[in-house]
Amino acid sequence: MAKSKQKTIRKKGPSGAALKRPTKRPALKTKPTAPGSRRILLVASEAVPYVKTGGLADAVGALAKHLKKRGHDVRLMLPRYWGVDRVKYGLKRILSPMGVPMGNRTVWCEIWHGTSEGYPVYFIEHENYFGRSGLYDDGYREYDDNAARFGFFAKACLQLCRDLKFQPDVIHCNDWQTAMTPAYLKMEGDAFFKNTASVFSIHNIAYQGTFKPDHLPFLGLDASHFTESKFESFGAINFMKGAIFFADAINTVSPTYAEEILSEPGGNGISTFLQRRREDLFGILNGVDYDHWDPKTDPFIPARYSSKDLTGKAECKRELQREFLLEEYSDVPIVGIISRFAHQKGMDMLTPVMADILRNMMVQFVILGSGEKWIEDFFGGLPALHPGRVGAWIGYDNRRAHLIEAGADFFRMPSVYGPCGLSHI
């Protein structure tokens, strides 16, 4: 039996009162960059290849790439987290410092620039906000200053547009971390953005960005905005509710999910407010970037294969076993798990039965993911308890993710709920 070791990466790095909808943006008056093209700004908290905790990163990175291929002027803005290596990605500092006027003070930051798949990517760098190990939490609890961190990021993206003299036709924002951008766009009424519309995409309505009202002064939200129809939710600030009120259009990751969130429990407490914007709510099915996830061409796997010729899959399985220090048996099935380690992903249903599965079934497991600390510790310790039968990588590694997808015989991916699973696709 091959000796196993744990491979670990720790990334330190409802009132049914009528609602007055925001004023619609005027039609585009400026000339597009090319016939039929638009200037599109994507704002997100993560995107491949730079930083990833889940499917949001895949969706944003792939969308930017394919919008660029269709001839649009696409830009992407991200926080410059500690884990985004400026040297590795060839980032260049272009603005230092840049002042961002928040509600009660100005916050200064630096701007770094890179290129991915032919489109420019801008990184907002602020060490106190983003120079830490986790993106949203430390593995145990959410960061106490997430409201300030991502409120600042949302405002900084608009300020950067001004400084770059880039006037987007559309700003596409993704999840609660960017939810303040549509609000600031409307609240400030800046003539620079008079022809700019906003789209807010809900990737997972369970995470809404709720915070104590102590952050109101910094965010620049006065009493007129801290109301039930806008940001207030049971005495707390709710970023996603604000975006639902202010955004010109609301999108989510599938037509089915768009229907599910219009009622409870799918709406996770805010379905009433989505119903008020039903005419502006759309569901567009997520997709996979087959330029990267096609086993016929995938450069990350040791052998190519297709549905018509599976010959290469056997070699992918062998390499997977070698990579994760598993015993090399061709007739023992490998179960692959690539996931965020969270309750939503059903991890607390799997962990209690892992011992019985490994004791009573001839099966191997390969596990890749990160999230809640106790889940990381559980899966991270399994290789030592079951050498040759379990391999684990705590963190995210793109090459290993491709190898697991190509070499595994089965996938374990039930969820307590799932807006749209990219691995399923």
Quick synopsis:
The chain is of the alpha/beta class and 425 residues long. It contains 13 helices and 17 strands.
Number of domains: 2
Rg to the nearest angstrom? 23 Å
First-to-last CA distance: 35 Å
Helical content (DSSP H or I, runs of 4+)? 25-40%
CATH class of the largest domain: Alpha Beta
What class would the helix/strand composition place it in? alpha/beta
**In terms of per-residue confidence, which ranges show pLDDT below 50 for 5 or more consecutive residues?**
1-32
CATH architecture of the largest domain: 3-Layer(aba) Sandwich
What does this structure look like?
The chain has two domains: 253 residues, Rossmann fold (3-Layer(aba) Sandwich); 101 residues, Rossmann fold. The strands form three sheets. The chain has a nine-stranded mixed beta sheet, with helices on both faces. Strand 2, helix 1 and strand 3 form a beta-alpha-beta unit. The N terminus is likely disordered. The chain has 13 helices and 17 strands. The protein has 425 residues and is an alpha/beta fold.
